Protein backbone atom coordinates (compact mmCIF):
# COMPACT_ATOMS: atom_id res chain seq x y z
CA UNK A 1 0.00 0.00 0.00
CA UNK A 2 1.22 3.44 -0.80
CA UNK A 3 1.02 6.44 1.47
CA UNK A 4 1.93 8.85 -1.31
CA UNK A 5 0.44 12.31 -1.08
CA UNK A 6 -2.71 12.79 -3.12
CA UNK A 7 -2.16 15.06 -6.12
CA UNK A 8 -3.55 18.58 -6.34
CA UNK A 9 -6.55 19.27 -8.61
CA UNK A 10 -7.93 22.53 -9.93
CA UNK A 11 -11.71 22.70 -9.71
CA UNK A 12 -14.01 24.42 -12.22
CA UNK A 13 -17.75 24.75 -11.64
CA UNK A 14 -20.60 25.58 -14.01
CA UNK A 15 -23.04 27.40 -11.77
CA UNK A 16 -25.98 27.05 -14.16
CA UNK A 17 -26.83 25.93 -17.65
CA UNK A 18 -25.71 28.58 -20.13
CA UNK A 19 -22.69 29.78 -18.17
CA UNK A 20 -19.12 28.59 -18.62
CA UNK A 21 -17.18 26.63 -16.02
CA UNK A 22 -15.29 28.94 -13.70
CA UNK A 23 -12.24 28.23 -11.57
CA UNK A 24 -13.23 28.05 -7.89
CA UNK A 25 -10.15 26.67 -6.15
CA UNK A 26 -8.22 23.48 -5.69
CA UNK A 27 -8.18 20.36 -3.57
CA UNK A 28 -6.34 17.09 -2.99
CA UNK A 29 -7.69 13.73 -4.17
CA UNK A 30 -6.30 10.31 -5.07
CA UNK A 31 -7.73 10.39 -8.61
CA UNK A 32 -10.05 12.33 -10.90
CA UNK A 33 -13.27 10.63 -9.77
CA UNK A 34 -12.44 11.25 -6.14
CA UNK A 35 -11.56 14.85 -7.00
CA UNK A 36 -15.07 15.32 -8.39
CA UNK A 37 -16.65 13.77 -5.29
CA UNK A 38 -14.53 15.96 -3.04
CA UNK A 39 -15.25 19.05 -5.14
CA UNK A 40 -18.96 18.35 -4.69
CA UNK A 41 -18.52 18.45 -0.92
CA UNK A 42 -16.01 21.29 -0.75
CA UNK A 43 -17.31 23.70 -3.39
CA UNK A 44 -21.03 23.01 -3.91
CA UNK A 45 -22.54 22.60 -0.44
CA UNK A 46 -25.12 25.27 -1.27
CA UNK A 47 -26.10 24.25 -4.78
CA UNK A 48 -23.41 26.42 -6.37
CA UNK A 49 -23.05 24.13 -9.35
CA UNK A 50 -24.59 21.77 -11.87
CA UNK A 51 -21.36 20.54 -13.45
CA UNK A 52 -17.77 20.08 -12.26
CA UNK A 53 -14.49 19.88 -14.13
CA UNK A 54 -11.29 18.81 -12.40
CA UNK A 55 -7.81 19.08 -13.91
CA UNK A 56 -4.67 17.91 -12.22
CA UNK A 57 -2.82 21.12 -11.33
CA UNK A 58 0.49 19.98 -12.78
CA UNK A 59 -1.13 19.67 -16.22
CA UNK A 60 -2.04 23.36 -16.38
CA UNK A 61 0.33 25.46 -18.48
CA UNK A 62 0.26 29.10 -17.45
CA UNK A 63 1.69 32.20 -19.08
CA UNK A 64 4.51 33.83 -17.18
CA UNK A 65 3.35 37.00 -15.38
CA UNK A 66 6.85 38.48 -15.84
CA UNK A 67 6.33 38.27 -19.58
CA UNK A 68 2.80 39.62 -19.52
CA UNK A 69 3.84 42.97 -21.01
CA UNK A 70 5.48 41.40 -24.04
CA UNK A 71 2.75 38.80 -24.41
CA UNK A 72 -0.16 41.23 -24.42
CA UNK A 73 1.60 44.23 -25.90
CA UNK A 74 0.52 43.52 -29.52
CA UNK A 75 -3.12 44.29 -28.66
CA UNK A 76 -2.33 47.62 -27.02
CA UNK A 77 -1.74 49.50 -30.26
CA UNK A 78 -4.80 48.18 -32.05
CA UNK A 79 -7.45 50.52 -30.78
CA UNK A 80 -9.24 50.20 -34.10
CA UNK A 81 -10.46 46.80 -32.93
CA UNK A 82 -12.90 48.59 -30.65
CA UNK A 83 -16.14 50.12 -31.95
CA UNK A 84 -15.48 53.33 -29.99
CA UNK A 85 -12.54 54.01 -32.37
CA UNK A 86 -14.99 55.03 -35.09
CA UNK A 87 -16.97 58.24 -35.38
CA UNK A 88 -20.60 57.66 -36.20
CA UNK A 89 -22.37 60.85 -37.30
CA UNK A 90 -25.50 61.99 -35.46
CA UNK A 91 -28.60 60.65 -37.08
CA UNK A 92 -27.17 57.22 -37.76
CA UNK A 93 -28.76 54.63 -35.52
CA UNK A 94 -28.69 50.86 -35.13
CA UNK A 95 -24.91 50.77 -35.44
CA UNK B 1 11.65 40.09 -19.68
CA UNK B 2 12.68 43.09 -17.63
CA UNK B 3 15.76 42.74 -15.49
CA UNK B 4 15.03 44.62 -12.31
CA UNK B 5 16.98 44.95 -9.12
CA UNK B 6 15.37 43.71 -5.91
CA UNK B 7 14.67 47.27 -4.84
CA UNK B 8 12.95 48.08 -8.11
CA UNK B 9 10.87 44.93 -7.86
CA UNK B 10 9.86 45.82 -4.32
CA UNK B 11 8.91 49.32 -5.42
CA UNK B 12 6.80 47.99 -8.30
CA UNK B 13 5.18 45.51 -5.93
CA UNK B 14 4.24 48.18 -3.41
CA UNK B 15 2.95 50.42 -6.22
CA UNK B 16 0.63 47.60 -7.31
CA UNK B 17 -0.63 47.20 -3.75
CA UNK B 18 -1.10 50.95 -3.37
CA UNK B 19 -3.13 50.97 -6.59
CA UNK B 20 -5.35 48.25 -5.05
CA UNK B 21 -4.25 45.64 -7.55
CA UNK B 22 -4.37 42.03 -6.42
CA UNK B 23 -1.29 39.84 -6.22
CA UNK B 24 -1.71 36.42 -7.84
CA UNK B 25 0.24 33.20 -7.17
CA UNK B 26 2.84 33.42 -9.93
CA UNK B 27 3.48 37.16 -9.52
CA UNK B 28 6.73 38.31 -8.01
CA UNK B 29 6.38 39.09 -4.31
CA UNK B 30 8.84 39.87 -1.51
CA UNK B 31 9.85 36.80 0.52
CA UNK B 32 8.50 38.42 3.68
CA UNK B 33 5.07 38.99 2.06
CA UNK B 34 4.96 35.32 1.07
CA UNK B 35 6.07 34.20 4.54
CA UNK B 36 3.57 36.45 6.30
CA UNK B 37 0.74 35.15 4.15
CA UNK B 38 1.72 31.50 4.55
CA UNK B 39 1.81 32.01 8.31
CA UNK B 40 -1.51 33.84 8.45
CA UNK B 41 -3.40 31.61 6.00
CA UNK B 42 -2.17 28.37 7.55
CA UNK B 43 -3.00 29.61 11.07
CA UNK B 44 -6.41 30.55 9.76
CA UNK B 45 -6.82 27.09 8.19
CA UNK B 46 -5.76 25.40 11.43
CA UNK B 47 -8.31 27.51 13.33
CA UNK B 48 -11.10 26.27 11.07
CA UNK B 49 -10.00 22.66 11.49
CA UNK B 50 -9.42 22.80 15.26
CA UNK B 51 -12.64 24.83 15.49
CA UNK B 52 -14.58 21.72 14.53
CA UNK B 53 -13.60 20.00 17.78
CA UNK B 54 -15.42 22.07 20.43
CA UNK B 55 -18.63 21.87 18.40
CA UNK B 56 -18.22 18.28 17.25
CA UNK B 57 -18.35 17.56 20.96
CA UNK B 58 -22.11 18.31 20.97
CA UNK B 59 -23.33 16.77 17.72
CA UNK B 60 -24.48 13.53 19.33
CA UNK B 61 -26.14 15.43 22.18
CA UNK B 62 -27.98 18.14 20.22
CA UNK B 63 -31.42 18.60 21.80
CA UNK B 64 -33.38 17.75 18.65
CA UNK B 65 -32.98 16.67 15.05
CA UNK B 66 -33.17 20.22 13.64
CA UNK B 67 -30.39 21.44 15.90
CA UNK B 68 -28.36 18.35 15.10
CA UNK B 69 -28.71 18.78 11.33
CA UNK B 70 -27.75 22.46 11.61
CA UNK B 71 -24.75 21.76 13.83
CA UNK B 72 -23.55 19.03 11.47
CA UNK B 73 -23.84 21.41 8.52
CA UNK B 74 -21.95 24.09 10.40
CA UNK B 75 -19.12 21.78 11.40
CA UNK B 76 -18.93 20.51 7.81
CA UNK B 77 -18.60 24.13 6.67
CA UNK B 78 -15.67 24.63 9.03
CA UNK B 79 -13.96 21.64 7.41
CA UNK B 80 -14.63 23.21 4.02
CA UNK B 81 -13.18 26.53 5.17
CA UNK B 82 -10.05 24.77 6.35
CA UNK B 83 -9.71 23.13 2.93
CA UNK B 84 -10.16 26.40 0.98
CA UNK B 85 -7.47 27.92 3.15
CA UNK B 86 -4.96 25.07 2.96
CA UNK B 87 -5.35 25.29 -0.83
CA UNK B 88 -4.82 29.06 -0.76
CA UNK B 89 -1.64 28.51 1.30
CA UNK B 90 -0.47 25.93 -1.24
CA UNK B 91 -0.63 28.54 -4.01
CA UNK B 92 2.22 30.27 -2.17
CA UNK B 93 4.33 27.15 -2.32
CA UNK B 94 3.69 25.90 1.21
CA UNK B 95 3.79 22.13 1.65
CA UNK B 96 0.33 21.03 2.77
CA UNK B 97 1.39 17.95 4.69
CA UNK B 98 4.14 19.84 6.47
CA UNK B 99 1.69 22.58 7.38
CA UNK B 100 -0.60 20.01 8.95
CA UNK B 101 2.28 18.24 10.65
CA UNK B 102 3.34 21.57 12.19
CA UNK B 103 -0.11 21.87 13.72
CA UNK B 104 0.00 18.29 14.99
CA UNK B 105 3.47 18.82 16.45
CA UNK B 106 2.17 21.79 18.41
CA UNK B 107 4.45 24.22 16.53
CA UNK B 108 1.81 26.06 14.51
CA UNK B 109 -0.63 28.48 16.09
CA UNK B 110 -4.39 28.68 15.71
CA UNK B 111 -7.08 30.86 17.24
CA UNK B 112 -6.77 30.63 21.02
CA UNK B 113 -10.57 30.62 21.44
CA UNK B 114 -10.73 26.94 20.50
CA UNK B 115 -8.72 25.99 23.54
CA UNK B 116 -11.71 26.64 25.77
CA UNK B 117 -14.07 23.76 26.57
CA UNK B 118 -17.71 23.52 25.50
CA UNK B 119 -19.35 22.33 28.69
CA UNK B 120 -23.03 23.08 28.05
CA UNK B 121 -25.38 23.09 25.05
CA UNK B 122 -25.64 26.88 25.44
CA UNK B 123 -22.00 27.04 24.33
CA UNK B 124 -23.10 25.94 20.84
CA UNK B 125 -25.22 29.07 20.72
CA UNK B 126 -22.61 31.37 22.21
CA UNK B 127 -19.90 30.11 19.88
CA UNK B 128 -22.03 30.77 16.82
CA UNK B 129 -23.10 34.17 18.07
CA UNK B 130 -19.83 35.50 19.50
CA UNK B 131 -17.01 33.40 18.07
CA UNK B 132 -18.38 33.26 14.53
CA UNK B 133 -19.49 36.87 14.94
CA UNK B 134 -15.94 37.91 15.81
CA UNK B 135 -14.60 35.73 13.01
CA UNK B 136 -16.87 37.48 10.50
CA UNK B 137 -15.69 40.84 11.79
CA UNK B 138 -12.10 39.71 11.15
CA UNK B 139 -12.83 38.05 7.83
CA UNK B 140 -14.95 40.64 6.05
CA UNK B 141 -11.99 43.02 5.60
CA UNK B 142 -9.90 40.03 4.44
CA UNK B 143 -12.19 39.73 1.41
CA UNK B 144 -10.30 42.84 0.21
CA UNK B 145 -6.89 41.40 1.09
CA UNK B 146 -4.19 42.06 -1.52
CA UNK B 147 -3.52 38.37 -2.15
CA UNK B 148 -6.09 37.09 -4.66
CA UNK B 149 -6.53 33.44 -3.61
CA UNK B 150 -6.88 34.42 0.08
CA UNK B 151 -9.37 37.18 -0.72
CA UNK B 152 -11.43 34.83 -2.89
CA UNK B 153 -11.46 32.12 -0.22
CA UNK B 154 -12.64 34.73 2.28
CA UNK B 155 -15.56 35.79 0.09
CA UNK B 156 -16.76 32.19 0.12
CA UNK B 157 -16.13 31.80 3.85
CA UNK B 158 -17.95 35.00 4.80
CA UNK B 159 -21.04 33.99 2.83
CA UNK B 160 -21.17 30.77 4.82
CA UNK B 161 -20.32 32.25 8.22
CA UNK B 162 -23.40 34.40 8.40
CA UNK B 163 -25.53 31.26 8.69
CA UNK B 164 -23.23 30.16 11.51
CA UNK B 165 -23.77 33.32 13.47
CA UNK B 166 -27.53 33.33 12.98
CA UNK B 167 -27.98 29.72 14.06
CA UNK B 168 -25.91 30.45 17.18
CA UNK B 169 -27.88 33.56 18.03
CA UNK B 170 -31.09 31.60 17.57
CA UNK B 171 -29.94 29.01 20.12
CA UNK B 172 -28.97 31.69 22.66
CA UNK B 173 -32.19 33.64 22.07
CA UNK B 174 -34.38 30.56 22.58
CA UNK B 175 -32.59 29.75 25.81
CA UNK B 176 -32.79 33.37 26.99
CA UNK B 177 -36.54 33.34 26.35
CA UNK B 178 -36.99 29.93 27.98
CA UNK B 179 -37.31 28.78 31.59
CA UNK B 180 -35.24 30.52 34.29
CA UNK B 181 -32.86 27.54 34.17
CA UNK B 182 -32.46 27.88 30.42
CA UNK B 183 -31.87 31.61 30.68
CA UNK B 184 -29.27 31.02 33.39
CA UNK B 185 -27.56 28.52 31.09
CA UNK B 186 -27.33 31.17 28.34
CA UNK B 187 -26.04 33.82 30.75
CA UNK B 188 -23.46 31.49 32.27
CA UNK B 189 -22.19 30.61 28.79
CA UNK B 190 -21.97 34.29 27.80
CA UNK B 191 -20.01 34.95 30.99
CA UNK B 192 -17.40 32.39 30.00
CA UNK B 193 -17.07 33.28 26.31
CA UNK B 194 -17.28 37.08 26.28
CA UNK B 195 -13.68 37.83 27.19
CA UNK B 196 -12.07 35.08 25.12
CA UNK B 197 -14.17 36.35 22.17
CA UNK B 198 -12.72 39.86 22.61
CA UNK B 199 -9.23 38.33 22.71
CA UNK B 200 -9.86 36.79 19.28
CA UNK B 201 -8.98 40.13 17.68
CA UNK B 202 -5.44 39.77 18.98
CA UNK B 203 -3.21 42.06 21.06
CA UNK B 204 -3.80 45.81 21.30
CA UNK B 205 -2.46 47.69 18.27
CA UNK B 206 0.47 49.06 20.26
CA UNK B 207 1.59 45.49 21.01
CA UNK B 208 0.81 43.85 17.69
CA UNK B 209 4.10 43.21 15.97
CA UNK B 210 2.73 42.33 12.53
CA UNK B 211 0.02 44.97 12.16
CA UNK B 212 1.97 47.88 10.60
CA UNK B 213 3.61 45.85 7.84
CA UNK B 214 0.45 43.85 7.16
CA UNK B 215 -1.55 47.06 6.79
CA UNK B 216 1.03 48.45 4.37
CA UNK B 217 0.76 45.28 2.28
CA UNK B 218 -3.04 45.35 2.57
CA UNK B 219 -3.04 41.84 3.96
CA UNK B 220 -4.78 43.39 6.89
CA UNK B 221 -7.20 46.26 6.27
CA UNK B 222 -8.27 47.22 9.80
CA UNK B 223 -6.39 47.04 13.08
CA UNK B 224 -7.14 44.66 15.98
CA UNK B 225 -8.50 47.43 18.19
CA UNK B 226 -10.71 48.89 15.46
CA UNK B 227 -12.27 45.50 14.80
CA UNK B 228 -12.68 44.72 18.50
CA UNK B 229 -14.47 48.03 19.06
CA UNK B 230 -16.81 47.37 16.15
CA UNK B 231 -17.60 43.93 17.56
CA UNK B 232 -18.41 45.33 21.01
CA UNK B 233 -20.60 48.08 19.54
CA UNK B 234 -22.58 45.61 17.48
CA UNK B 235 -22.88 42.86 20.08
CA UNK B 236 -23.87 44.77 23.21
CA UNK B 237 -27.30 45.82 21.87
CA UNK B 238 -27.91 42.23 20.71
CA UNK B 239 -27.33 40.98 24.26
CA UNK B 240 -29.61 43.66 25.65
CA UNK B 241 -32.32 42.76 23.18
CA UNK B 242 -32.49 39.18 24.45
CA UNK B 243 -32.12 40.16 28.10
CA UNK B 244 -28.60 38.93 28.75
CA UNK B 245 -25.90 40.89 30.58
CA UNK B 246 -22.39 41.39 29.21
CA UNK B 247 -20.03 40.38 32.05
CA UNK B 248 -18.13 43.67 32.15
CA UNK B 249 -18.70 46.14 34.99
CA UNK B 250 -16.82 48.85 33.07
CA UNK B 251 -18.96 48.61 29.96
CA UNK B 252 -20.71 51.88 29.23
CA UNK B 253 -21.84 53.96 26.29
CA UNK B 254 -19.54 56.84 25.46
CA UNK B 255 -21.69 59.59 24.01
CA UNK B 256 -18.71 61.53 22.72
CA UNK B 257 -17.13 58.62 20.85
CA UNK B 258 -20.54 57.15 19.93
CA UNK B 259 -19.06 53.83 21.01
CA UNK B 260 -18.90 51.58 24.04
CA UNK B 261 -16.07 51.88 26.53
CA UNK B 262 -15.18 48.47 27.89
CA UNK B 263 -13.02 46.97 30.61
CA UNK B 264 -9.40 45.85 30.43
CA UNK B 265 -8.71 42.51 28.77
CA UNK B 266 -6.69 39.97 30.73
CA UNK B 267 -3.75 39.67 28.33
CA UNK B 268 -1.89 37.34 30.67
CA UNK B 269 -4.65 34.82 30.17
CA UNK B 270 -4.45 35.34 26.40
CA UNK B 271 -0.67 34.85 26.28
CA UNK B 272 -0.95 31.80 28.50
CA UNK B 273 -3.46 30.16 26.16
CA UNK B 274 -1.46 31.14 23.05
CA UNK B 275 1.61 29.56 24.60
CA UNK B 276 -0.18 26.25 24.91
CA UNK B 277 -1.45 26.34 28.48
CA UNK B 278 -5.15 26.91 27.91
CA UNK B 279 -7.73 24.47 29.28
CA UNK B 280 -7.84 22.33 26.10
CA UNK B 281 -4.65 22.96 24.07
CA UNK B 282 -3.26 19.47 24.64
CA UNK B 283 -6.59 17.78 24.03
CA UNK B 284 -7.09 19.64 20.72
CA UNK B 285 -3.66 18.75 19.35
CA UNK B 286 -4.02 15.14 20.51
CA UNK B 287 -7.36 14.93 18.67
CA UNK B 288 -5.82 16.27 15.45
CA UNK B 289 -2.89 13.88 15.71
CA UNK B 290 -5.20 10.93 16.29
CA UNK B 291 -7.31 11.97 13.30
CA UNK B 292 -4.26 11.92 11.06
CA UNK B 293 -2.97 8.60 12.38
CA UNK B 294 -6.35 6.88 12.39
CA UNK B 295 -7.11 8.19 8.92
CA UNK B 296 -3.92 6.74 7.45
CA UNK B 297 -5.59 3.52 6.28
CA UNK B 298 -8.29 5.57 4.53
CA UNK B 299 -5.72 7.60 2.61
CA UNK B 300 -3.82 4.42 1.72
CA UNK B 301 -7.01 2.68 0.63
CA UNK B 302 -7.94 5.64 -1.58
CA UNK B 303 -4.55 5.41 -3.28
CA UNK B 304 -4.92 1.67 -3.76
CA UNK B 305 -8.44 2.12 -5.14
CA UNK B 306 -7.26 4.85 -7.52
CA UNK B 307 -4.55 2.54 -8.85
CA UNK B 308 -6.99 -0.30 -9.25
CA UNK B 309 -9.46 1.93 -11.09
CA UNK B 310 -6.69 3.18 -13.37
CA UNK B 311 -5.62 -0.38 -14.17
CA UNK B 312 -9.20 -1.38 -14.91
CA UNK B 313 -9.74 1.61 -17.19
CA UNK B 314 -6.51 0.82 -19.05
CA UNK B 315 -7.45 -2.77 -19.79
Q: Can you tell me about this structure?
A:
With 95 residues, chain A is α+β, with helices and mostly antiparallel strands. Chain A has a single domain, classed as Ubiquitin-like (UB roll) (Roll). Chain A has helices spanning 32-43, 68-76; strands at residues 8-14, 22-28, 51-56. The longest helix of chain A is centred in the middle third of the chain and has 12 residues, at 32-43. The mean pLDDT of chain A is 94. Chain B is mostly helical and 315 residues long. In chain B, 67% of the residues lie in helices and 2% in strands. Chain B has helices at residues 6-18, 31-50, 52-56, 65-90, 96-104, 122-142, 148-176, 180-199, 211-216, 224-241, 267-277, 281-294, 296-314, and strands at residues 252-254, 259-261. A two-stranded antiparallel ribbon of chain B has the order 1-2. In chain B, helix 4 (65-90) packs antiparallel against helix 7. Chain B is globular and about 65 Å long. Chain A binds chain B through residues 1-6, 8, 25-31, 33-34, 41-42, 45-46, 62, 64-67, 69-70, and chain B through 1-2, 24, 26-28, 73, 76-77, 80, 83-84, 87-88, 90-91, 96-97, 149, 152-153, 156, 160, 296, 299-307, 309-310.
Amino acid sequence: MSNKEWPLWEVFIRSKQGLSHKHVGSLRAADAEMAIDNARDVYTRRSEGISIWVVESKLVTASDPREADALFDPADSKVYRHPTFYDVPDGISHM
Amino acid sequence: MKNLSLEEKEREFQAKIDADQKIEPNDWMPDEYRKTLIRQISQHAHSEIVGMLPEGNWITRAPNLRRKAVLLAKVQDEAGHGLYLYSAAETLGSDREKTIDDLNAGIAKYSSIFNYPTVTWADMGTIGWLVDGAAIMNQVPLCRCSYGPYARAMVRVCKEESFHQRQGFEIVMKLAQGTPEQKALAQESLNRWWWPALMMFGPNDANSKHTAQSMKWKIKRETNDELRQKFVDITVPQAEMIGLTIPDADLKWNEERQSYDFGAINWDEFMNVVQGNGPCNKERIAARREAKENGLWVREAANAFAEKRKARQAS
